[in-house]
Amino acid sequence: MKLDEEILKGKQYIDKLRLEYIENHTRFQERDELIAENNIEKRDIKGYHGREILELLQNADDAYQKSIDKGEKPQCELKVTICYKGNVLTVTNTGTCFDEAGIKAIVQGNNSPKSGKYIGNKGTGFRSVLNWAEKVRIFSGNYNVEFSKEIAEKILEEHKENPQIKKQIQKNKNLYIPMLAVPVYIENGRYNDTTTIEVVIDSMKLNDDFSVSRQIENIDLRILLFLPNISQIEIITDDNCIVYRRNNNQGVAESITLEKIVDENVEMQEEFYLYRKVITNAIEEDEVLKDIQLSIAVPLDMDTFMSRYIYSYFPLLDTESPFNCVLHASYALGDHRNTVNVSKENKKIIEEQLLFLVEVANQFVDKEQYDIAYNLLIPTNFSSNKWRFTSPFAKFELEDYYLEILSEQKIFRTVNDENISVKDKPKMISGNYPEFFRDKGFEGLLNSLLDNRMISLIEILAKRKEIDLYFEERELLQIINSLSNDWDIKKQVNNLCGGIRDIESQFRIC
User: How far apart are CA 200 and CA 43, in angstroms?
Assistant: First the structure.
């Protein structure tokens, strides 16, 4: 098909969508469709206010992934440029263009093709721009499309005497036609090999709490961990140029470096090991079995890392991460999209998340990187006194569930260089003890190189299983007496100098 024919086809499709909408809403029917649409739109966009830019980023990432899934991976990387000057926000991405299904999804709203694979994906995120927009233009492939309040108001004015429209106006004087429902083709005849979304911001929304400027200022570098296809986000304003970049480190599986560059100067850099997991057909949503998507980003530098939020692609701002890593899951989010609501679906997701966290920690144990494993497993607010997870995990009361999982893990290193679990009945000695306390009699003695938080965790796990964690005096003396005849002179002298007669002061014996 020639280029001109493709552009003409795009125009005809846009006109058809608009005319079908008008025809459907002007024919007489008992149902008040337009009133219902007004109510649904107001409900849907409310929960996304404050996330508009993030939703546009996710749409670009989803479109790129869709091409990959179809076996049509774009030849270029996915890069996004956000330009905000005056009252116009422009978001341009490389790699993919809108097709008929994508345009139809915008016009129809809840019939989005995105509402499929993962739990929580409703496909309504693009419509969040309605919180701001006076006008929206899309330039993508064959489609040059405009949506505006002016166009929608003009169509309503033209049909306000229509009986079907008139009866609804009588019930709701503030009735309106949703502007995304009535697209108009922009007559420029140009084909675009990128996608550009241009939003003219309502002057009344320029300085509210969720304005474009504030959202740009608060973009979180770590979102690039969970938007797997976007390699770079460039933000251009009147004040500066900011670049958020993700680099996949060569030769290191799933090792990622994130950079924030302000006016060509690196302002922030973080490195992570990224682990992903998909649990297929795990949860039923809207009568369809959905997958759970999980990711855990483990910082390479635990000493400087600061955990903040839990993520569902983007940070949930009313949450606090319970672990020393960056957690992501495709939660079933409600209308308020900054927290994890209590539901059986989300409880299942968090249970799977905790299991996955332990799986990742075990990979570090297998590599004998115990410090990283223990830093992952110990909750950030852990204490021995009536400990609970931070919010929102605390709402699900999964503390016992998590501790039970830990009890079964062979993650504790003994003096004999073996890994055992709490169920294997480990033993501990407080303070220093001779290096030759190993082998027979000391099979379960844990390595002394544990910090206080890890010791507290082991103590709680042992108490839950009614296991005597510390050697009793008589038990320890019996082991020493039984072994002393086989010790050489050096070991016997060392033990004597250590003060067997003062054993209670050498060891914590309970």
Answer: 22
**Alpha-carbon distances, residue 502 vs 380, 445, 448, 497, 506 (angstroms):** 38, 21, 20, 10, 7
Beta bridge partners of 79: 232
Confidence grade of residue 452 (pLDDT, cut at 50, 70, 90): confident
Answering whether pTM is above 0.85, one says yes
Q: Which of 6, 202, 18 is nearest to 103 (CA)?
A: 18
Strands 230-237 and 241-248, by their bridges, are antiparallel
Angle (deg, nearest 10), helices 33-46 and 163-171: 50
For residue range 277-329, what is the model confidence (pLDDT) as tens digits? 999 999 988 788 999 999 999 999 999 999 999 999 999 999 999 999 999 99
Q: How far is the C-alpha of 126 from the C-alpha of 150, rounded, in Å?
A: 20
For 414, which DSSP code? B
Q: How far apart are CA 140 and CA 191, in angstroms?
A: 7
Residue 251: phi and psi, rounded to 5, are 80, -5
**Do 231 and 79 touch, CB atoms closer than 8 A?**
yes
CA torsion sign for 494, 500, 501, 502 is positive
Query: Which residue's structure tokens are 């979102």?
Result: 223
Residues in the chain: 510
Task: Mean pLDDT check: name the lowest of 80-84, 89-93, 472-476.
Answer: 472-476
Instruction: Return the beta strands (E) in 263-391 as ranges.
Output: 265-285, 288-299, 310-312, 314-316, 326-329
Separation in Å, CA 6 to CA 161, 166, 182: 37, 38, 21
